[in-house]
Write a structure and sequence with these properties.
By secondary structure, the chain is of the alpha+beta class. It is built from three helices and seven strands, in the order βαββαββββα. A hairpin with a 6-residue loop joins strand 5 and strand 6. It is elongated, with a radius of gyration of 19 Å. The chain starts with a strand and ends with a helix. The mean pLDDT is 90.
């Protein structure tokens, strides 16, 4: 098993980040062109806690290294199952995802959280802390060299995708702030 972890602080409030999170794979994100579709399977609010729970299926064009495809077969389309929890009282978004494609060969479990970064925020300048952890395990029994090579290639690919994902989400956050700011200005102008 290989582990990937990263932390990052977005220069946006938790409210902005948690709202823009639903637009992460929109056309504003020029780094997510590999995402083919995002389908919401279920969504509901727990009346006791107020937590919004959403299940989604994310379909991607994800080319595997040629040596992996030649060894194991498969296609360039992959599916990821994601469950997210948004707690407005705790100001926390938690997203847990797992791969469905090649799940009998490779298991990828990722957990992402967004929370206000109270140490880096000041009044009028709120920031949001992002943490990401992934555990990647090759399941091809008996072939330790092959397992290690698959895990190493997967962690390298995951790391690159994580970097591009942050860059793309920054673009979504920037565009969201601009669009919502323009809309607020239009509303103000229409009230007078």
């Amino acid at each position: 098993m290989k582990v990937f972890s990263s932390e990052y602080t977005f220069d946006y409030s938790w409210e902005e980040v948690s709202t823009a999170n639903w637009r992460k794979y929109c056309p504003w994100n020029h780094k997510s062109t590999h995402v083919i579709s995002v389908d919401t399977l279920s969504r509901g609010v727990d009346p006791a806690t107020g937590i919004l729970r959403t299940e989604r299926l994310i379909t991607c064009h994800q080319s595997a290294p040629a040596w992996v495809v030649s060894l194991l077969g498969g296609s360039n389309t992959s599916h990821v199952y994601e469950t997210s929890y948004v707690s407005p009282t705790e100001k926390r978004v938690t997203m847990c995802s797992t791969n469905l494609t090649w799940a009998n060969i490779l298991r990828v479990r990722e957990t992402v959280t967004y929370q206000p970064d109270l140490t880096a925020s000041s009044p009028g300048h709120e920031r949001t802390r992002f943490t990401q952890d992934a555990k990647i395990t090759a399941l091809c029994g008996g072939w330790q060299k092959v397992k290690t090579k698959i895990e190493e290639a997967s962690i390298e690919r995951f790391s690159e995708n994580a970097r591009r994902g942050r860059e793309g989400f920054e673009a979504v956050l920037e565009m969201s702030r601009r669009v919502f700011g323009e809309e607020k200005e239009r509303e103000k102008a229409g009230m007078h």
